[in-house]
Amino acid sequence: MSQATASCTYVLDPDHPQSWGGEPDDACYVDEEILNDAGVWTCPHAAEAQEDKCIFHLPVEEKDDADVVAAFLDAVETAADKTESDAQRRGVEFLGAEFGTFDIGTTSTTVPHAHFTGADFRGDADFESITFAGPAAFSMVEFGGKAASRDVTFNDEASFTPSQFHAAATF
């Protein structure tokens, strides 16, 4: 994908289910601690060139799966290098993200913590060899393909409420 230029315009508003793929009577399971003063979550990632959204919020059809995984790994590495806790926390937030096939491969990766709340993994999702050092929120996530977590380590709480798995899940 092209070089990123501006801020992503994606906003998750717990009071507006259409912003997180919910129905009018659904509960939003987003951690209130990650909402801003207006009570919403705004994407911290840069928008792609000529786009208003980041690589994680662009429709799956408009991006390459390998580019998305590379951007994820870059965001994790950048967050791990940050010393300011807010910058570190925000860099590994992927709320409402749209993924096709997500395959980390055998790359050993440590994620300080992560929020995938409301994300949609349309293809297979393989989190092999990832260590989640802090909390990992997978609330309201839709797994359309197989979900594999061989050799994944959760060193803190991992939440999958109320996520949906539409194919085999291996932990």
Protein model, in words:
It is built from 2 helices and 18 strands. It has helices at 65-81, 85-91, and strands at residues 4-7, 11-12, 41-42, 46-48, 98-99, 102-103, 109-111, 114-115, 120-121, 125-126, 130-132, 136-137, 142-143, 147-148, 153-154, 158-159, 164-165, 169-170. A 4-stranded parallel beta sheet has the order 5-9-13-17, with no helix packed on it. A 4-stranded parallel beta sheet has the order 6-10-14-18. Strands 7-11-15 form a 3-stranded parallel beta sheet. The mean pLDDT is 88.
Summarize the entry for a quick read.
The chain is of the alpha/beta class and 171 residues long. The chain has helices spanning 65-81, 85-91, and strands at 4-7, 11-12, 41-42, 46-48, 98-99, 102-103, 109-111, 114-115, 120-121, 125-126, 130-132, 136-137, 142-143, 147-148, 153-154, 158-159, 164-165, 169-170. Helix 1 (65-81) packs antiparallel against helix 2 (85-91).
The total beta strand count reads: 18
Contiguous low-pLDDT stretches (5 residues minimum) are none
Gap between N and C termini: 32 Å
Q: Mean of the pLDDT scores?
A: 88
Principal-axis shape equals: globular
Derived structural class:
alpha/beta
| N-to-C SSE string, H for helix and E for strand | EEEEHHEEEEEEEEEEEEEE
What is the topology, as strand order, of the major beta sheet? Answer: 5-9-13-17
Q: Considering DSSP H and I runs of 4 or more, what fraction of the residues is helical?
A: 10-25%
Rounded to the nearest angstrom, the radius of gyration is: 15 Å
* Binned strand content: 15-25%
Sheet with most strands? 4 strands, parallel
**Can you count the helices?**
2
